[in-house]
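Revision sheet: structure tokens.
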Amino acid sequence: MLLAKTLRSSTFRLALIAIAAFGLIVAAIMAYVYFGTLAYVERRLGGAVDHDGFTGMIELAMVAVAMLLLVLAGLAAVLVTRRTVGRIEQINATSRAIMLSGLDQRIPLRGSNDEWDRVAENLNQMLDRIETLMGEVKQVSDNVAHDLRTPLTRMRGRLEKAYHAPRNSETDAALIGDTIADLDAVLGMFTSITRISEIETRARTGAFRALDLAEIAGEVVELYDAAAEQVATKLSLAGERDVAITGDRDLLFDAIANLVDNAIKHGCKGGQVTVTCRRADGAAVITIADDGPGIPAEQRDHVFKRFYRLERSRYTPGNGLGLSLAAAVAHLHGAEIALHDNAPGLTVQLSFPAATVP
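Predicted:
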């Protein structure tokens, strides 16, 4: 079966064309050697000597060499083409299995570390990435459905209750206000998704200009000071002043605001949240530290995914998009976002490369 596919493959036809071209070159060389040898012998020995026996030997040797080269070339073409077709068939078989059963199939490696093994390894890594992305899409879809179901159910319940109840201006006003609040939450979630997608596609680089990172951090601290006081949390700004950076002011403000908001919400009540700006090796660094329960080390790589929340029941306020937005903004600015243990609590660090500092 494989031999039949080998003989019908385009690779084998190309190999035959190459062999034909090689044969023509060899034939020309052999003809040159043959006639050159005869001319040399005739010139050295003269025309009186019978050269028939010597000529026959040369012709026989030439034919034998030509036949041997032809057989070897044909055998090499079949073997090389068979190997190539075999590896291609493995890829095709895996592709068919993936289409039939799912993304859990992988192309087998032979351990030869040749170009075909490298192609198979790259394809397997691509399949791993696709499988991961598909899993994330499913998880996001499930989380969106869960997050939408709660406010939509509340709105439907209120409207149904109001529909069957007699009209009352105060009750109706309260119902309308609660329904608007739930709708705002739903619209806010979709707005955040749109913003993250826009940032990830790098569609917002036209607003980049020279900025003071410490000034932006100070404005965020001032904005969230009242929210921190409500839970008896001390919010403070520390570090250096005039930390220069190049970026989008609105996006950086939103990212830092999300990080500060998370620190206040998930930190320890009556605790402390500190925002620090500094320079390090020519780069700009901002850290937001709290003294709350923190995030387990095994989950720190997952919290930047959309809608991912440590609280699996998803009944606490929020939608799990704050850190995703901060990560998208950091990626747009070429910055690195990292989570560290604050013992106790969590430290979120944004490190901007020196290239973004004017």
